[in-house]
Amino acid sequence: MRVLIHACCANCLIYPLKALRREGMEVWGFFYNPNIHPYTEYVRRREALKEYAERVGLRIIWRDSYDLERFLRAVVFREGNRCQVCYHLRLEATVQVARHGRFDAFTTTLLYSKQQRFQLVSEVGEALGKEYGVPFLLRDFREGWREGIEESKALGLYRQQYCGCIYSEKERFLGKGVKGDEPS
Predict the structure, then answer these.
(1) Domain span including residue 141
(2) Is the pLDDT of residue 176 over 70?
(3) pLDDT tens, 135-153?
(4) What does the alpha-carbon distance between residue 39 and residue 79 come to, in Å, rounded to a whole number?
(5) Domain assignment present for 179
(6) How far is CA 13 from CA 6, 29, 66, 79, 157, in A?
(7) Which residues pair with 2 in a beta bridge?
(8) What pTM was estimated for this model as a whole?
(9) CA–CA separation, 4 vs 180, rounded Å?
(10) Cα(175)–Cα(1) distance, rounded to whole angstroms?
(11) Which residues lie below 8 Å from residue 150, measured CB to CB, with a gap of 6+?
(12) How crowded is the C-beta side of 16, counted as CA atoms within 13 Å?
């Protein structure tokens, strides 16, 4: 089975990639993250992903455009639902590439992070999969949270301190982060 996995960063990709490969899947990565702010943070995450992908032999499809304005236009006046808007933007781009590339399914590293809203990511992915006719591969990768962190540290990968958007950066400094769903 050929799977396209949306990758927000190298750190969050480590465990899901291993898990999918263990299941015998052919995995390709997809990078599109218009939410990441500032640009220097975007570049650091992109470069860390390039480095990791080369190490593990992962092919990546890059939508490497710093499309911050698109993210901001989509989120403005919807700040309370910004995560849903952000998930939708990134996963819709992923499912479109998956359909065009005739992948069997698509998924995302957003299902790995305990800082993300697992149930919401799942709902958005499932809905987009139905809309575009490409199954959303739902896996709870959070079980590998500690393993992924330890490996990223051992590899010396850049480790970000916030989700990526300007709002999460603000919350990082004010100590008011959005908590992800707890693993079931």
Answers:
(1) 2-174
(2) no
(3) 999 999 999 999 999 999 9
(4) 21
(5) no
(6) 9, 9, 20, 27, 12
(7) 26
(8) 0.90
(9) 23
(10) 42
(11) none
(12) 29
In a domain, 60, yes or no: yes
Tokens of residue 38, six digits: 């500032």
Q: Does 183 reside within a domain?
A: no
Calculate ∠ Cα 78-109-38, nearest 5°.
55
Over pLDDT 70: what percentage of the chain?
90
> Does residue 34 have a pLDDT over 90?
yes
**Domain-embedded: residue 134:** yes
Cβ-contact 7, 109 below 8 angstroms: yes
Q: How many domains does the chain have?
A: 1
How far, in Å, are 2, 43, 56, 68 from residue 72 at the CA level?
A: 32, 18, 33, 6
What are the tokens at 50? 């390039």
Q: For residue 90, how many other CB atoms are within 10 A of its CB?
A: 25
For residues 124 and 87, is the Cβ–Cβ distance under 8 A?
A: yes
CATH of the domain at 28: 3.40.50.620
Cα–Cα distances in angstroms (integers) from residue 35 to residues 5, 56, 58, 131, 155, in the given order: 17, 26, 23, 23, 26
Amino acid in position 76 = V
